Amino acid sequence: MPQTPRLLSGLRDIAPAYDLVFCDIWGVIHNGRAVFPGVAEALAAYRKGGGTVVLVSNAPRPAESVVPQLDGLGLPRSTWDAIVTSGDVTRSHIGAVAAQKIFHLGPDRDRPLFHGFDIAFAGPADAEIVVCTGLFDDTTETPETYRPMLEALLARKVPMICANPDLVVDRGGIMIYCAGAIAEAYRAIGGEAIICGKPFKPIYDAAFAVAATIRGGPTPPERTLAIGDSVRTDLTGAAAIGCGALFIASGIHALEAGHGDGAVDPVALAAFLRDKGVVPDAVMPRLIW
């Protein structure tokens, strides 16, 4: 990784150096309400030039459940080749514990995560394992809301599987808590939590495998570019697998990372990255071609 990231005017500046893109969804492609201007054109142009785009998301649902949301937001299917989610990775863990009583901590919209499994769902008082996909109501609740529940689970040493490592996401300009914040709160009081998705290796292994099927062979990490807006998940994950990293500064770190008025302040960006332990190869305000 370079010590100072390159400020790009568009993805076209570095596109020829990469055959494969792992692109984050929430915060890079959309904010939960609308697709950002220029994103679809950028991804479509990259694919037209021969590149492969795999959307790699910490969504706590299977990939096929993400497609209708993207369709609803108006993202053309011509912009991506495949989708891999933390929900896909989580399902392998659910399969191993499906015989146990499972408490689903999260909204009903995430129930597709359990489709195909014969599961005995239980409440928190009877559960043998917790699968956390988020908060029941992320518009009003915080991780602190769940402290009594987590303490009761800890007293019985109930393990947790976290289907979304993200701590927060920006939903239409409002930061909301995600499953990762609950898992971190549980770990903080001594609970056991298995966390699926970025920045951990299994989701990237799955993404590389899908890409190899599409491209007819493996793509080396050095010819792969991870695009994301999170230091904790996207940049850390890219560094761990040795691929290139493009940081989108207008995402969850916008206030800290020097993003403003459609540009990036290099001084503020450098200060932000100084103690993060990872430095992206390149930075853009938003993903455009």
Structure in words:
The chain is of the alpha/beta class and 289 residues long. The chain has a domain at 88-195: 3-Layer(aba) Sandwich (Rossmann fold). Helix content is 30%, strand content 20%. It has a seven-stranded parallel sheet. Strands 6-5-7-8-11 form a five-stranded parallel sheet, sandwiched between helices. A two-stranded antiparallel ribbon has the order 9-10. Helix 1 links the parallel strand 2 and strand 3 (52-57). The two termini are 23 Å apart. The model has no long low-confidence stretch (mean pLDDT 94).
Q: What does the secondary structure layout of this molecule look like, with pairings?
A:
Blueprint lengths: L5 E2 L12 E4 L15 H10 L3 E6 L5 H11 L8 E4 H12 L3 E5 L14 E2 L7 E4 L14 H9 L4 E3 L5 E4 L2 E4 L1 H10 L4 E3 L5 H15 L8 E5 L2 H11 L2 E5 L10 E2 L2 E2 L1 H8 L8 E3 L5
Parallel strand pairs: 1-16, 2-3, 2-12, 3-4, 5-6, 5-7, 7-8, 8-11, 12-13, 13-16
Antiparallel strand pairs: 9-10, 14-15
